[in-house]
């Protein structure tokens, strides 16, 4: 069972949507055409990781003097955590949007 999947048909949601989309961006499932959007869990996770990334960067940069390497380590850690948190999307009622 995939960690990030459509709540309607259970087809996988691409990693690119979870990592690079805005919180207001909606995603339509390729298989069943269900409309999905970020839920509260994704927004809280994103805000927490934004604070955590600044703290982690300052901690790593104090030990590793190469700022590019420190930035790369922070991005890898943040994207990994964002990918590991399940259930970050929910179905959107299309009738209420009209």
If you had to describe this structure to a student in words, what would you say it looks like?
The chain has helices at about 15-20, 40-65, 65-85, 95, and strands spanning about 25-30, 35-40, 90. By secondary structure, the chain is mainly α. A hairpin with a 6-residue loop joins strand 1 (about 25-30) and strand 2 (about 35-40). About 5% of the residues are buried. The longest helix has 24 residues, at about 40-65.
Nearest-integer average pLDDT: 83
> Could you list the spans in which at least 5 consecutive residues all have pLDDT below 50?
none
DSSP E strands, number:
3
Radius of gyration: 16 Å
Question: What fraction, in percent, of the residue positions are helical?
Answer: 40-55%
The amount of beta strand, in percent, is 5-15%
Strand order of the largest sheet: 1-2-3
Query: How many helical elements?
Result: 4
Which structural class fits the helix and strand makeup? Answer: mainly alpha
Q: How many angstroms separate the termini?
A: 33 Å
The succession of helices and strands, N to C, reads HEEHHEH
* Biggest sheet layout: 3 strands, antiparallel
Shape: elongated
């Amino acid at each position: 069972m995939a960690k990030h999947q459509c709540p309607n048909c259970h087809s996988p949601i691409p990693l690119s949507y979870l990592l690079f989309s805005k919180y207001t961006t909606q995603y339509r499932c390729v298989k069943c055409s269900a409309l999905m959007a970020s839920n509260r869990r994704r927004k809280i996770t994103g805000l927490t990781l934004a604070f955590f990334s600044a703290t982690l960067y300052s901690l790593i940069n104090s030990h590793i003097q190469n700022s590019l390497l420190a930035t790369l380590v922070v991005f890898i850690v943040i994207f990994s955590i964002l990918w590991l948190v399940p259930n970050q999307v929910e179905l959107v009622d299309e009738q209420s949007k009209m």
